[in-house]
Structure formats: structure tokens, C-alpha cells
Amino acid sequence: MKYEKLSKEIIEAVGGKDNIISLQHCMTRLRFTLKDESQADDEKIKGIDGVLSLIKKGGQYQIIIGTHVHDVYLDVCKIADISDEQEIKEKPKKKNIFNSMFSAIIGAIGPIIPILVGTGLGKCILLFISTMGWASAETSMTFYVFSFVFDAGFTFLPVFVAVAAAKHFKCNMFMAALLGCALVHPNWNAIVSSTDPKFIGQMFGVLPLYGMPYTSSLIPALLMVWVMSKVEFTLNRYLPELLKGMLTPLLTLLIMTPLTFVVLAPAMGIISIYLGDALLWVYNTFGMFAIAIMCIVYPWMVATGMHETLAIAGIQILSQSGYDPFSRTLTLTANMAQGAAAFACAIKTKNKEFRNTCVSAGFTAFFAGITEPCIYGVSLRLKTPMYAVMIGSCLGGLYAGFTALKAFAFMTPSVINFPMWMGGNGNANLINAIITMIISAVGTFVAMLVIGFEDPIDETKPKVNNTINTVQSPVEGHVIDLNDVNDEMFSGEVLGKGIAVIPQDGKIYAPADGVISATFETKHAIGLTTDKGVEILIHIGIDTVKLDGRPFVQYVTKGQTVKQGDLLLEVDLTQIKEAGLDATTMVVVTNSSNYLEIIPTQQKNVTKKDSLLTII
Questions:
Q1: What strands lie across the sheet with 29-34, from one edge to the other?
Q2: Which residue in 123, 389, 459, 543 has the fewest CB atoms around it within 10 Å?
Q3: SS3 state at 345
Q4: Which residue has the higher pLDDT, 126 or 564?
Q5: How many whole angstroms separate alpha carbon 267 and alpha carbon 219?
Q6: Which residues, in sequence order, are CB contacts of 101 under 8 Å at separation 6+?
Q7: Cβ–Cβ < 8 Å for 516, 557
């Protein structure tokens, strides 16, 4: 695995694999949902080589990695044994309603962005071919087929949203897809001709049915699936086991069909239209000034993760009006400005390593449209480049607003994604996009050279503890190498370096003077921080957490001061054996990265008086 070391460090710092409920990734970020965020070490995360920054937003624990995030994601999933189909057995702590809504929207919309990007770029290419007079739907069957394929991305948007939302809300995605298909069914569209809801009949003779088209819509499908997840959960909870397989799908449809078409879809459809109309009104009313002001704020929105909401609004406007004059323009100016700021820093810095960072981050912003490496590796690190970015973005936004720049496809703006700006009458919009890029980049570059920055000549290096510490054995028994333990979390040194002992009796002693830093309800493990700062985890047995503490008697509490040799707890080894579990006890230094070496004993058998680990 290419990023094995980085992945192990991340897993350890977020509280171990048992603290991970789910993991997703976008273009630059690992998006964790954790059982308990207090178990994650924020400072340790930020100090990991390969991590750009950390953001806690919308109920997600977001770790900024960069453009290679997908490879890191795969390694983390493999090491932590995370699969797309895993069920969450322990519920996370409740989030406030804003975080829950934000998390749901991002979780449902994020996975379908590639569809919008692919079909959007395809439509732009077809538009270019048509404009050049090379082919059209009337003259070429190839053009005709690709045309309706690319149109399908937006036409059937509710279906894609429904599937993604079902995965997020943990309900049956095929049932969700069925309801999504119903929203865009030809029979429904045939009796609905106007955008505004109109009365078209009654359901069950009493429920008034108002019709409007839901193709290319986002919000109706999202709310529909959320409600469906609650209905499905309730039915599965109360229906007899023998009838669930037959009645749950049928009753779900019987409940959700009138609920969707009478209440949810029309209500959310109106909200979707009003949302798009409101943003268009702001744009049409304030024009260049609205764009310019938002361009100043947008780089900070990206830094905090709030830019996702504008992307969702942009999708709604694009599906509603055929173009997006707002969100893609903001992204265009910010991407060009961040890239220019990074290149300006590369020219002025005398630090070779930092120059390499600036150049790679700048190219990523210009050609991939991904600015997180610039933001966290350059702009926020030095602070003043962020001000230059605000200036350049504002100048570009003024021009874009003045010329009414529009994007005709939902893509990440970059130098090579120019087809997204092709549309309207002639090539004027494309030319204005290119000029906006130039103004944003040049304005930022000049501003950066004028403002300057404090060159990071001396890179900060982590301090290494070079004193020698010894850790006595907490248990009597036979010593084995940690790599031989039948548990990947320990054998892979995910939690840290150490050693293991096959115990001969059930008494666990304090291996050094210190304070009890962690205890567990199941009593299967105990944490100790020594007086010299060594963080030790003593884990008794493999999978003994399943025994719910029955074989254990604990004599200490969290925060209690202990001396080396004090009895911490006792365990009935017979019960562990009868349960078919392994009693091997792991002794791990969880802050191993603070030390040069963790040297295990060469003895084959140890008592509580013997040295088990030497720490340098």
C-alpha cells in the first residue's frame, strides 16, 4: 500500500478503527463520521506528515489530504476494514439540526458530482461541435445518441439523488430509486405541463393532487428518501419477522406514494424553484457587485468547507435555467487567484522545499481546479497570500459580474475546462471567462508581490524525546513479538509499537509510576500515562470486549495515581478460554512517534519485576 504509514497514523489519531462509523471522500478530503469526536486527537491529526489541515463541519471530521485522497481512502478502508456495506451498530452522538441537514445534503449530493461533471462536459463538447458546424442531432446518429446520454444526467437527477440519499440514510436504495423514477415517469410528465403547481385531480377521492415536473430537481428526492427511511425503519421494527420481506416494500409504497405526490414533492419543488429564483434575483439585481463581494468571501468558505452549499445551489440554478451565473464564477476566480498566489510565493521564497510545495499546489489549482493544497499549504500558512487572493478574486468578480459571465455545465473551473463556458450567442461568454481568469490571476500575482510574506526559512521540526525510559511487565508470562499477535490493529502497529505477553496468571500490575489515563466499561483494557510522559495501553486479550467485563475485576479509576507494581485489575483466564478467545495481553506505547526507538525485551518469559520495553 502506497500510503500505509499515513493511513495508520490517521486511523490512530481519529481514535482507532472502532471509533469510525463511516468514511467518505471528496476531491481532497477524507470525511469521517465518528462515534465520539472527543476520542480523536486534533493536534496529532494536524501534525501528521501528509495531512494539510483539519475541519470539523456538518457533523463530519474532515481531514484535508490533497489530490491523492482517493489512494489514501482505499488504504484507510483496507487497514481499518471499512466497507461500503458495513452496518453501524453503535449510533453516533446526536447532532444539532443544522449539522444534520448539512451532513445529509453533502452526503447525498457529493457522490453524484461525477455524473454532473461528466455529462456537463459532454454537453459542452457537443455544443462546441455543433457551433463549429461539424455535426448535429439532425445530421449525425452518433451526435444524437451522445446528446440524449448526456441529457440523462440532469433529466434523471432525482433518481441519482434518491440512490445516494438512500445510502446516506441507510435505507433500501432500490426502493428509493423506484420512487425517484416515479418522479420523472413519462406518464407523470405527460399530465404536467407547467412549472408552477396546478390542480390535476384527487387521490382516494379526497386528497388534492397538484402537479409539477420534477426532472432535474434535487430537494424533492432528498426529502422523499429521508421520510422513506423513517417509514421503512418503523415497518421493519413492528412487522412480524415472517411478513417483513413481503409487506415492508408494499406498505412503503402505499404510504410513500400519496405522501410524495400530495405533500413532499410539490412542497419541496416550490422551495427548489424559489431558491433558484432568489439567487437569480440577487444576481440580476446587484450584478457585478454581488459577484465581487462574494468573491472576497468565497476563499474563506472553501477553507471552512462551507462552499459545498453554494455548489448545491449552483446545481439547482443550472438545472432550472440552463446556466449558472453564480457558484461556478466564484470558483473560477478563487481557483485562478489561489494558483497565482502560490506561483508568486514560489518566485519570492528562498526555501527550496517550500518552493516545490508552491509550484505543485499552483499547478493543481490551475489545471485541476483544486485549491486545498494552495489554501492549507501556502495561503493560510503564510496568511498574507490569502489577502492577495481576496483582491484578485474581487477584481475578477467585478469583470465577471459586469459581463454577466455564465457557466453552462457543472464542472470544477480550471484552465483546461474551458468548454463549460461555451454557450449563449457566439463566443463572447467564453472570451469573458478567459479574461476573468487572467484578471483574477494577474491581480493576485501583483498583489502578492506587493504585499509580500514572511519566508519560512527554518522549517519547524517535531521535538524528539531522547531520554531513556523503561517499562516493567504488567503481567507474568511468555513474551511474543507484537507482529505475531492475531489482531491486525496491534500486529500492524496501528496503535503504536510495543510487545505482547501470553499471561500465566490473571493479575495485571502498573508497569511504571503514573496516572490512569483511560478505563473502559468492559474493563478489558486500561491506559496509563507515566510520570515521564509515556502513554501506555494494556489490552488484555483479543476480542475480550465482547465479554462485557465479566472476567475482570478492576481496582483503579481514571485519574488515579499509581506506583509501579500496584495491582490494577484481575482477570479470570479460564473464562476467556471457555469463551474461545485469546488471552494474549498487548502492551503498546500509543505515543510511539514521540520517541526514537521502542526496544522490546529479549527475554522469553517475564515477571512484574522484569523490564519489558526500553524507550529512547
A1: 20-25, 29-34, 60-64, 53-57
A2: 459
A3: helix
A4: 564
A5: 10
A6: none
A7: yes
The Cα-based distances of 304 to 64, 342, 372, 401, 597 in angstroms read 11, 19, 11, 25, 38
The whole-angstrom separation of Cα 370 and Cα 64 is: 12
Q: How many CB atoms lie within 10 A of CB 109?
A: 22
Q: Length of the chain, please?
A: 616
CB atoms within 10 A of CB 43: 8
Contact 474, 587 (CB under 8 A): yes
| Cα-based angle 501, 507, 511 (whole degrees, multiple of 5) | 65
Q: Are 492 and 482 in contact (CB under 8 A)?
A: no
Q: Which of 168, 307, 524, 539 is catalytic?
A: 539
Distance between CA atoms of residues 404 and 432, nearest Å: 9
User: Tell me, what DSSP letter sits at residue 571?
Assistant: E
pLDDT category, 97, cuts 50, 70, 90?
very low
Reduced to 3 states (helix: H, G, I; strand: E, B; else coil), residue 505 is coil
Alpha carbons 325 and 406: distance in angstroms, whole number: 4
**Among 26, 124, 295, 345, the one annotated catalytic:** 26
pLDDT of 101 reads 55
Q: What are phi and psi of 506, to 5 degrees?
A: -100, 20
What is the rounded CA–CA span in Å between residue 327 and residue 313? 7
| pTM of this structure | 0.50
Strands 525-530 and 535-542: antiparallel
CA angle 292, 293, 297 (to 5 degrees): 115
Note whether 265 and 220 are within 8 A (CB): yes
H-assigned helices in 364-513: 372-374, 380-382, 384-402, 428-451, 488-491
Is the model's pLDDT at 346 over the cut of 60?
A: yes
What is the Cα–Cα distance from 101 to 529, expressed in whole angstroms? 40
Contact 608, 473 (CB under 8 A): yes
CB 513 within 8 A of CB 541: no
Contact partners, residue 574, CB within 8 Å, separation at least 6: none
Band (pLDDT 50/70/90 cuts) for residue 306 is low
Say which DSSP state 326 is in.
Answer: S
| Other C-beta atoms lying within 10 Å of the C-beta of residue 457 | 9
> SS3 for 46?
helix
Concerning whether 539 is annotated as a catalytic residue, the answer is: yes
**Is 168 annotated as catalytic?**
no
Apex 576 CA angle, 570 and 578, nearest 5: 140
For range 88-105, the mean pLDDT? 50
Which of 330, 496, 488 shows the shortest CA–CA distance to 398? 330
CB distance 498 to 587 below 8 Å: yes
Measured distance CA(504)–CA(69) in Å, rounded: 45
